[in-house]
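Hi R.,

Here's the input for the flavin-adenine dinucleotide complex you asked about:
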Amino acid sequence: MDKQTQVIIVGAGPTGLSMAAQLLRYNIDFIIIEKNEKTTHLSKAVVVQARTLEIFQELGIADKAVKEGQITTAMNLFYKGKQKAFLNLSGLGEGLSRFPYALSLEQSKTEKLLVDFLSANEKLIQWKSEFTHFETNKNGVTVYYKNSIGQEQKIEAQYLVGCDGASSLIRHQMGLSFEGDTVAKIFYVADVKLKSEIINKNELFMFMIKKGFVLFFPMEGKGHYRIVGILSEAKEVNEQIKFEEIENTIKEQILVPIDFEELQWFSQYKVHSRKANSFENGKCYITGDAAHIHTPAGGQGMNTGIQDAYNLAWKIAYAINGNVNTNVLKTYNSERSENAKHLLQTTDRMFDIMAGTNVFWNFIRLNFFPTIIGLVTKSITVKKRIFPLISQTGISYANSYLTIDSFIGKVKAGVRMPYFIFSDGTQILEYLTEPTFKILFFGNDDKNNSNQLNNIKLKIVAKSFKEIPASLFGHDKNFYILLRPDNHISYIGKDLKICREFLNKISCN
Ligand SMILES: Cc1cc2nc3c(=O)[nH]c(=O)nc-3n(C[C@H](O)[C@H](O)[C@H](O)COP(=O)(O)OP(=O)(O)OC[C@H]3O[C@@H](n4cnc5c(N)ncnc54)[C@H](O)[C@@H]3O)c2cc1C
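And here is the predicted structure with flavin-adenine dinucleotide in place:
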């Protein structure tokens, strides 16, 4: 008999697993299929950003992630064997997130955390199931796949979410393009155990060389580093090249004493910078690498996929339950496509600077970059701007259909609820874990009572707070914040009527 479900997810990488974990929070029935027999054993994406950890906190897996990972405490910049700058990263996001740092955690471990979360909730992945094609019909989609013994199977679902990576078949079959560029250089990645008098801390080491860089990224365990660099002469990936052949080149490039003791993984790859022209078509959606791929600058790729899933899951759930109008689900494409576009611009620019691909930026990098980094180290204001950008906590959907142009103090609608700590030591996001719309009231006169909130067609959770951090909201009081289920602000202001009208506008009934 054909299987039926509400959502079919194709691909159990970090994005697909996150999609599944999020749908679980909304009690949506789903099937997740994956062609491989288990999650990756490779370290691949090693940076887990603060916003991802906040999302993990809602799933109850953030503390485990932090325990298994390694916090990067500083960045060192070297040129011609000499230290040119030191950037203390430990306080970078202080006061901006419960996780004021970038965590290094192998992708294999991140995926395992998500798989364990699903198993603990009695949801299993259908391994060894290879998606082949889909058809759309008036009820949704029919997905065809080959099972472990090559037999064709099908699943009927209301929605299809393609989390099938950069070569996404689903993207092709949806008729979408994947516009952008591929960098004409070959990069290598090596996970090693090393011994060095200089590279021996939980710190990032970036060695600038004439046409590129060698990056040493700290990983969990003594002497454990991820090395990323450019294979100088190569034009194509050549599997014959072994790490042993480039060991000496690395030593000559970085000019600091180092011994490689163990190689755990070596791979070469091409760097792409591409984005699909749309992330949706009818009842089908693409997320993660299927929708956009980036240069490795800033460790954004995997984190962006996890946030795509976080953004899409609640909208699909509300659509399935018949709670919101069709415009709401359309905002997945507008919000996340715009985010991916900005991200590609920033990662491309960062990458141009790091890799020396552009003559102008290479000149700037070799001559001024150390001074700039030095200034950044000293400027608290610059640090406070960098963290939201890199950690993805600063993403705003200001131009969305789901955002009403409004602000109180420094807080504008569109951003995720800003992080702050109350005087009793609790932090605001702890109160906001329910996956639903919320109306928060900040002030003394508790107007957030049931009478005021009558006649709202959508289910909401109301909360009141007497303590109001002046650093964020100035001296304003008696105002409301309307939060979406993903804790982005739809409205911030004094008029509860606006919240009510907005919620009724987006609801179905
Ligand atoms: C060397 C390297 C370093 C990186 N470093 C970072 C970093 O530091 N930070 C960061 O954020 N990102 C990094 N990335 C990028 C990151 O690995 C990807 O962005 C991330 O894996 C994307 O997740 P995804 O789930 O969207 O896609 P994938 O991880 O590619 O998962 C797609 C899944 O779909 C499955 N699939 C494909 N086709 C089918 C089919 N027909 N049927 C069934 N299943 C199918 C695949 O088997 C796979 O499991 C790095 C990548 C590499 C290669």
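One thing worth noting: The pocket of flavin-adenine dinucleotide is lined by residues 10-16, 33-36, 44-47, 107, 130-131, 163-165, 169, 189, 269, 288-289, 296, 299-303, 305 (CB under 6 Å).

Cheers,
M.
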